[in-house]
């Protein structure tokens, strides 16, 4: 009889569960603030991102009015921070979320700042909330399609124990923005000080910003190790 055959059934189940957790963490490799990413120490070999040009905004859809300042922010917005599952998430009285208190934090301003806060809140909550919380966020705030279906399937088998390490949002940069769609790169700082960048897309749908996933269920096309926050707008030191 092999060593594997001699292992208790409970231990084998635990190994399968850990494998599922590892798969979901890789799948959703997130930015947000809240990426469960192992960032190695030392200098990054990845090139620094090229600062984006500011796009001209086409006429927005008319399902709800454009609100607030439509200029891309040049500094971190004024927010208060709420800790959710060990991760600090931003809340603005003007830009949202206006609806809070449960799993779903919704009702964002149709503005660049509103899109930024939505990208951070949703891309964290749909991953880390325990019990049925992640599913509520996914069903209400993630756009339907193959990506959402793939994520729900993977997350359902992962359970709630996604690990204890939490990275925190360190900065942001807009790649593109219109009142209908925003593509935002979010930098997160791991406990060891390493930085990772991911790209999050949110779209305006049914009167609010919604998260768009990749076809395989990931929030970002990939993750990039960063040497520093060059070309990113940093958040206040108090949240890192």
Automatic annotation (TrEMBL):
Report whether tRNA-binding shows up as a keyword of the record: no
Keywords annotated in UniProt: Membrane, Transmembrane, Transmembrane helix
TM region positions: 21-39
* Species, as recorded: Saccharopolyspora griseoalba
What are the start and end residues of every segment in region (Disordered)? 42-75
- Residue span, DUF8175 domain: 51-234
**What superkingdom does the record give?**
Bacteria
List compositional bias (Pro residues) regions by residue number: 48-58
What's the protein here called? DUF8175 domain-containing protein
């Amino acid at each position: 009889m092999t060593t594997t055959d001699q292992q208790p059934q409970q231990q084998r189940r635990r190994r399968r569960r850990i494998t599922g957790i590892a798969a979901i963490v890789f799948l959703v490799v997130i930015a947000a603030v809240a990426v469960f990413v192992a960032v190695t120490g030392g200098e990054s070999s990845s090139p620094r991102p090229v600062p984006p040009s500011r796009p001209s905004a086409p006429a927005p859809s008319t399902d709800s009015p454009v609100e607030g300042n439509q200029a891309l922010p040049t500094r971190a917005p004024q927010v208060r921070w709420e800790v959710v599952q060990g991760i600090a998430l931003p809340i603005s009285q003007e830009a949202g979320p206006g609806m809070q208190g449960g799993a779903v934090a919704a009702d964002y301003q149709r503005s660049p700042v509103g899109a930024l806060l939505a990208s951070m809140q949703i891309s964290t909550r749909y991953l880390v909330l325990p019990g049925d919380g992640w599913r509520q966020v996914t069903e209400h705030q993630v756009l339907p399609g193959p990506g959402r279906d793939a994520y729900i399937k993977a997350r359902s088998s992962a359970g709630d124990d996604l690990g204890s390490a939490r990275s925190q949002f360190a900065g942001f940069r807009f790649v593109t923005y219109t009142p209908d769609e925003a593509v935002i790169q979010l930098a997160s700082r791991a406990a060891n000080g390493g930085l990772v960048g991911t790209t999050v897309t949110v779209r305006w749908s049914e009167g609010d910003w919604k998260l768009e996933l990749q076809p395989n269920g990931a929030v970002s096309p990939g993750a990039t190790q960063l040497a520093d926050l060059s070309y990113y707008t940093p958040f206040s030191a108090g949240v890192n």
